[in-house]
Amino acid sequence: MDGGTVSVAAAKVRKRSALTSSDRFVYLLAGPLVLVLLVYLVVPMLATATTSAQGGGSAYKGFFNGSSATALGLSVGISLASVLTTGVLGTALAVLLSRFDFPGRKVLRLFALLPMALPPLIGAVSFYFLYAESGILPRFLAQYLGADAAAVSANGVWGVLLVHTMTMYPYFYLAVTAALAGSDASMEEAALNLGASRFRMWRNVLLPMLTPALVSGTLLTFMVSMASFTAPQFYNVQTLTMQIVASRTSGAYDVAAAQAVVLSVVSICFLLAMRWYENRRIHRGSSKGTPQSVKVLHGALPRTAAGLGSLLLVLFLMAPPATIALLSFTVDGSWTTQILPPEYTVENFARIFTDPVTLRPILVSAQMAFVAMIGCVLVGVLAAWVVTRWKGPGKALLDVMVMLPWALPGTVIGVNIVTAFASPTPFNLGQVLIGSLWILPVAYFVRFLPLVFRSANASLAQIDPSVEEAARSLGAGPWRALRTVTVPLMSRGIIAGALMAFIQGFGEYVASVVVYPARYAPLSVEIYNRIYSNEFGTAAAYGTLQMVLILLVLALSQRLETPRRAKKPRDDTRGDSAVALTPVLAPTLNPIHETGDKNEHANEPVNAAPRP
Amino acid sequence: MTSRPLRFALLAGGLALTLGMTACGLDAPKDSGSSAGAAGSGTLTIYTARDKGLATDVVADFEKANPAYAGKVQVLTLGAQEALERIKAEKANPQGDIWWGGTQQQMQQAASEQVLAAAPKSVIDAVPAAQRDPEGLWVGEMKLAEVIFYNKDMLSADQAPKDWDDLIDPALKGKIAIRDVLASGTMRSIFASMIDRKFDAAGSPDAGYEWLKKLDANTKVYAANPTDLYLRITRQEAAVTAWNLQDVMLQIQNQKAPYTPVVPASGAPMLIDGVAKIKNGPSSAGADAFLSFLLGQDEQTKLAEKYFQIPTVTLAKEPAWLADLNLKEMKVNWARVNKSEPEWSKYWAANIKGQNKS
Hints:
The structure holds two protein chains of two kinds.
Chain A: H1 4-14, H2 21-52, H3 58-61, H4 67-99, E1 100-101, H5 105-111, H6 120-131, H7 136-145, H8 149-152, H9 156-182, H10 185-193, H11 198-226, H12 230-234, H13 240-249, H14 253-279, E2 295-296, H15 300-328, H16 347-354, H17 356-389, H18 395-403, H19 410-420, H20 439-462, H21 465-473, H22 478-507, H23 512-515, H24 523-532, H25 536-561, H26 582-585, H27 598-602
Helix pairs in contact in A: 2-14, 2-17, 2-19, 4-9, 4-11, 4-13, 5-15, 6-15, 9-11, 9-20, 9-22, 10-11, 11-14, 11-20, 13-14, 15-25, 16-17, 16-25, 17-18, 17-20, 17-22, 17-24, 19-20, 20-22, 21-22, 24-25
Chain B: H1 3-38, E1 44-48, H2 52-65, E2 73-77, H3 80-89, E3 98-103, H4 104-112, E4 116-117, H5 121-126, E5 138-151, E6 176-179, H6 185-197, H7 199-202, H8 206-218, E7 219-223, H9 226-234, E8 240-244, H10 245-255, E9 259-262, E10 270-278, H11 284-294, H12 297-307, E11 310-311, H13 320-325, H14 334-351
Parallel strand pairs in B: 1-2, 1-3, 6-7
Antiparallel strand pairs in B: 3-10, 4-10, 5-8, 5-9, 5-10, 5-11
Helix pairs in contact in B: 3-4, 6-8, 6-14
């Protein structure tokens, strides 16, 4: 559809002068989007609410006087603490790697995302082998420093926090990295030129600019910690998810559903609170300038310190994946009381590679995760754009619709999807997915859409709509403006989200095991089988292959992200097609730290902006 | 204009990767699979919580004995609880034919949700009435003897516990690991048996609670899952635990685990592990054939000898290892246990677990 004339006509006839053609484009896109969200996300998840209400609400009665209330408190506390620890680690790492150059930077950048690729089941085992009482670290400390192994091992809530920090910091790391890459160095320079101290520049210029990214990381971490089960089970912490599993095991499905509903309601309240916080201010710049150049550290001392620091960090981050790799070369059952395994073998890998059937799960997982990732990108980016550009009420509802599955434990999602797509009904548009290969990508899509959505959303929050409006006023249609201006500007956020969705889909277990069709067992199910038979070596070999593959994907995406760097030392072409617009827009830097209503900005005459 | 080629390259690269992998990986098995699918109702789908090696072995035997099903049996491995949830969720359009491996309680739940169909009459008749559903909606395939086992590198036979009550001896303080109870049907049943054992004398579960309090005081760690339990015993974090005999024997045989099982003097609670036919599954005839085969003398004898299984059907000859063990069954009032177990477990979690460390 083409904007100009239509919008004028509509405005005249219906006197809805506030509705521009861009607005109508938003509503037009919102139609199919809401349909997709309703069919795949909202209606299936409503099944949990109906189950919980089966006994006329009796399932909720015991909630607040029983142990569930305590468990809820513990869940919230752990989740808040996880947000804090992951936020500090992820943000620090992102700033360090985006802004400074030092020996070991490249390696650290590559490995920074690997902890997210920890295979779900064997990942927990790696923490056991590292930090439990009989783990490598406590035994090492006990033997060489005379520490009490039981006292230095990770336990209880601390263990849960350790695992959460290690596996969830990428939510912050990726979002903040994308935000830093999208920020304009000239604003920092302007602040410094105006006499601001470095600290003040960070507080008043950079940190507000990072707010959308931090909000995205906070939301993802908080909600996923609330729904986390493996870590609390491993360290025996009675969180609400533990109670849900206990209720299911005892057959009290309505109670389990009620607990899941409470869990997601708390998460959604948190989501709304964060939305409110984020919307109090606008955190965007209308320019797409050059990001701050990487600061090269000079001098022997800072370089050594930074190199040593990053080495330690790499060691810390790599310890769990490295433990899995170590296990994959260990003879099953031989490693008992020693610090490190006494016997090594390549038999575990030989077993995988000689049997053609065993490689199949890896292919299944890789392809299903990839298909799901494409779906997540298409729908997630669109949803982020609609939510950001939507005027009037309802945007929070749309946000909640997308994030709903992120607030629920994986098993609940798996069961809901199977129930929803078991037979043709009006709600699923007659689709029957069970028994078909498509159910796996659908499950991954539902589970990991929030990752792309939040990440794209954070990028979008940094971009001023006037950039898009400029494109429109230069004659581009709404679709073209979205395609050639907005999406390229968001690309870093999109790629970050897509990477997360792919990596997590690759190793997904809890929902997969409930939905996977015959003949297409994903990798995680195969790992479960090996662990169940106590064949750690083979399980770890599978896990190692998974991590190597993901490492390859990460290395590839990193190469693709910086293709010109080798040719030009100063990467001033790193931007996008929007760079062409930059010279026009750059001199009219809007104050990045506006307060007040977004609409006020949108109503500005579009052609007032580019004034050289 | 870097970005569009960039993303294009990313997509193209990913797509090429995917297609390349499709070409060399998924297609070959898919062909054989789809030819099986073409046979339609001929394909038999089994959801199993049993060990994959054991399941594969049994299915191979089944295909040999029933050539009509050769290459047409699909096995999906998943935990018993997941199998139950999956079957319930698929109720409108069942995808599986057989559910193999689940506790009596789980099987009974599925039966009352009306997702199970009766087994063939010959199979029902072969299994004693106490070890199956009255209408044969599920039948017990084996009895799981719940025993004590310990790490023989840590304790000598003299120091090792001989009976359940030895577990609460202060000498074992800090030496016991227990599989996380609430998330495990097996552990719930063991603990409920311990309460039931003392119920008649006291007329209430209180004596059992007292016993569990002392056990909790001796317990060093609650393990997250069976694997975690094995690890903690093998790696000498704890010396003693309670678990089912078959798994322990298989660990000893396959992993050379340093375990020694102890059949408690007062007897071992015997849990039922069942198998059931899923109602309205794609291949009803296949399900009947599989059940008849699985519970037949030949296969049960093999499972008993090779996989340390205690069958529910009466075998012509008891396997040698079982005769050596002198296994004695503990008397448990299962009707009472099934009724009160959720309440007892809840009480334990709220008032006993982790509260007796002093």
